[in-house]
Design goal:
Bound molecules: adenosine-5-diphosphoribose
CATH topology of the largest domain: Rossmann fold
Strand content: 15-25%
CATH superfamily of the largest domain: TPP-binding domain
Strand order of the largest sheet: 3-2-1-7-8-9
Number of helices: 10
Helix content: 25-40%
Shape: elongated
Largest sheet: 6 strands, parallel
CATH class of the largest domain: Alpha Beta
Radius of gyration: 19 Å
Number of domains: 2
CATH architecture of the largest domain: 3-Layer(aba) Sandwich
Order of helices and strands: HEHHHEHEEEHEHEHEHEH
Length: 265
């Protein structure tokens, strides 16, 4: 592993534009299950429950399912804390090594760890959005209204429209700003860190493909417990193991090379 860490450090120090793409695997050590590993969320809940069509058939039913997943601890984002992998990426940004994090996660842990440039590719599950007027509301307020029996189907306090968690459901479009920013970043980057994702869901999985297809191609560094579905096509350096352990070793080496407060130009 040390040899691989040295190789990754060299790549990151020589690169001029490093971007990170993260998935659920970066948050499992914060207590949030991923989706497709054994015991992951999709082994307990039908992914179809998270399709926009199913939501629109009965929004109240989804909200109760979501609240049960939270209160049972199966999928409780509110009590999760950032782990060393999240903090390492935030530190890389403050050292000037990393330009931005594109995350498929909806848990807000990158922002809470101090990352500033974060692209929420699949939205953010700590907010609810009105499907009519687009007003936003902290999801905790909505869950409180459901838990107290005040409303079956949560409604927007501004216009009475149906409220939906502000995460992207299967069958929904990626927010246009997030999609555009990610496309630009995948074209500009010369090194892409891919951390804790199986790369099985598009269009997020298109990001490393696009970074690889451009001229010159970006160098793709994959940090994963299991090789991703695209590792043979896109990955130049595959580091297998725990994201928090690997990212801790990485940031320790980078700080040694750069000093604590460097801001690379
Ligand atoms: N350290 C490193 N890698 C890990 C760790 C860990 N501690 N825990 C899990 N992993 C890896 C797994 O080996 C797997 O390759 O993270 C990956 C998680 O893959 P998925 O569960 O498929 O999650 P993700 O790739 O983020 O899913 C993408 O699918 O269900 C939708 O919208 C959902 O954003 C999600 C998208």
């Amino acid at each position: 592993m040390d040899e691989q860490i040295e190789k990754v450090v060299d790549i990151l120090l020589q690169a001029k534009n490093v971007v990170a793409l993260t998935g659920a695997g970066i948050s499992t050590e914060s207590g949030i299950p991923d989706f497709r590993s054994p015991g992951g969320l999709w082994s307990k809940v039908d992914p179809g429950e998270f399709s926009i069509d199913r939501f629109l058939q009965n929004p109240g039913r989804f909200w109760r399912l979501s609240l049960n997943l939270k209160t049972s601890g199966e999928f409780d984002l509110a009590s999760a804390e950032p782990n060393p992998a999240h903090f390492a990426l935030a530190k890389m940004e403050s050292l000037g090594v990393l330009k931005c994090v594109i995350t498929q996660n909806v848990d807000n842990l990158h922002q809470r760890a101090g990352s500033v440039e974060v692209v929420e590719f699949h939205g953010n599950l700590l907010r609810a959005v009105c499907m009519k007027c687009k007003a936003l509301e902290p999801i905790q307020n909505v869950e409180d209204r459901i838990a107290s029996g005040q409303e079956e189907t949560p409604r927007c306090l501004m216009c009475g429209g149906i409220l939906k968690p502000d995460a992207i459901f299967f069958g929904e479009a990626i927010p246009s700003r997030a999609l555009m920013t990610s496309q630009i970043q995948s074209q500009k980057c010369d090194a892409l860190l891919v951390i804790g994702t199986s790369l099985q869901v598009f269009p997020a999985a298109q990001i490393p493909i696009a970074a690889k297809m451009k001229t010159p191609p970006a160098t793709v560094i994959e940090i994963n417990r299991d090789p991703s579905a695209l590792h043979k096509q896109v990955t130049d350096v595959l580091v297998i193991g725990s994201a928090s352990e690997i990212m801790t070793s990485l940031i320790e080496r980078l700080e040694k090379e750069l000093g604590e407060t460097s801001t690379l130009q």
